[in-house]
Amino acid sequence: MSDQQTGEEIEGIALASVTSWLAERLPGLQPPLKFSLIAGGHSNLTYRFDDAAGNSYVLRRPPLGHVLESAHDMGREYRIVSALHGSAVPVAEAPAHCDDSEINGAPFYIMDFVDGTVLHDGETASALSQQERMSLSEHVIDVLASLHTVDPDAVGLGQLGRKEAYLERQLKRWNKQWVATKTDEIPAMEATAALLEEQMPEQIGSAIVHGDYRLGNMMVADGRIAAVLDWELCTLGDPLADVGYLLNNWMSKEEDELAATPTSAGGFASRDQLCARYEAATGRSLAKINYYRAFSHWRLAAIGQGVYKRYLVGAMGEDRDIDLEAYRQSVVNRAEAALELLS
Questions:
Q1: 7 occurs within a structural domain
Q2: Is 244 contained in some domain?
Q3: Are 302 and 178 in contact (CB under 8 A)?
Q4: Considering only CA atoms, which of 71, 8, 2 is closest in space to residue 40?
Q5: Percentage helix, strand, coil, to 5, in the chain?
Q6: Pick from 247, 221, 229: nearest CA to 139
Q7: Is the distance from CB of 29 to CB of 22 less than 8 angstroms?
Q8: Do 208 and 242 contact (CB within 8 A), yes or no?
């Protein structure tokens, strides 16, 4: 983690009111507090803060200037993390949530600080030993299997979302997004959408679905997951969507020449090994996992097309650091990868 800002004038933190609020809820907290931004951008903002005694915590809040709170619901994320704490799914303990926007301009919640490393790419993953890479591979799939065997009703998450017709709802949503943001003819998008409808497997049961389960959203220490992060896309639905998404992000050296994914460092379990371990742990068949991998590629292509159009029409601001043609091509590549998996 790298500090981007420190000191009293950190953007997004109303130091006096936040410190006062925290002091009432964190026993033994010793001000003054020092905040540093450790994850920013268009997603939820994550800050680390340390008190005078050296105790460390994390504060999560929505992006600055964001008005659609439903898309960055701090209370929902806090509820998920709190419900899973103490289960076989490693998450940081979350001692407090603030829904009073007067305190800090937006709702936020507090988590204990978990030490470790986020594996953002092949370069960071190359610091792991061969033994750590294999043990981490096994823990990644074991934790996902554990998440998918948690009873949502038993942990108070039964109302997190609709449990049934997950794929049907997703296809409807992202087809609508594709039509609304389409700028070029990409035949693979329409062809894939038709095949996804035609080949849609029956959903067997439902589970808590993380929605963005990959190594880049995990704190790793000693060859294991210390904490699963970023639960903002979590919902209820078909658990195999998580497996398909993970497999697409689990790339070998040969597939990922740019070393953008951690597993491109080599030495991690193969996709087949992950699938076998998941099937053994859950009893769920992955015979149709290529469907879910195709769905994941297609969904991300639809999302990417929406971002591309926003850049194209200038909605993302003038000073954009993006190669628009390369971004457009990435949408095409995802659509074609999806189609190939279904053919």
A1: no
A2: yes
A3: yes
A4: 2
A5: 45, 10, 45
A6: 221
A7: yes
A8: no
User: End of a domain among 75, 91, 112?
Assistant: 112
Q: Which of 74, 14, 63 is nearest to 40 (CA)?
A: 63
**Residue pair 138/199 in contact by the 8 Å Cβ criterion:** no
- Residue 244 is inside which H or E element, if any? helix 240-248
Q: What would the pLDDT profile of 229-287 be if each residue is shown by its tens digit?
A: 999 899 999 999 999 999 999 999 999 988 999 999 999 999 999 999 999 999 999 99
- What DSSP assignment string belongs to 285-298? --TTHHHHHHHHHH
Confidence of residue 296 (pLDDT cuts 50, 70, 90): very high
Last residue of a domain, one of 112, 141, 173: 112
220 and 253 share a domain? yes
Give 66-81 pLDDT, tens digit per residue. Answer: 454 455 689 999 999 9
Rounded Cα distance, 182 and 131, in Å: 46
Place of tokens 């149709």: 288
**Residue 316 to residue 14: CA distance in whole angstroms:** 27
Question: What pLDDT is stored for residue 35 in this prediction?
Answer: 97
Asked if residue 165 and residue 286 are part of one domain, the reply reads yes
Identify whether 149 is part of a domain: yes
What's the Cα-to-Cα distance from 80 to each of 66, 90, 123, rounded to whole Å? 22, 12, 31
Residue numbers of the domain that contains 83: 15-112
**Considering its fold, how many domains does the chain have in total?**
2
Q: Which two tokens stand for residue 105?
A: 């301009």
Pairing of strands 224-228, 56-61: unpaired
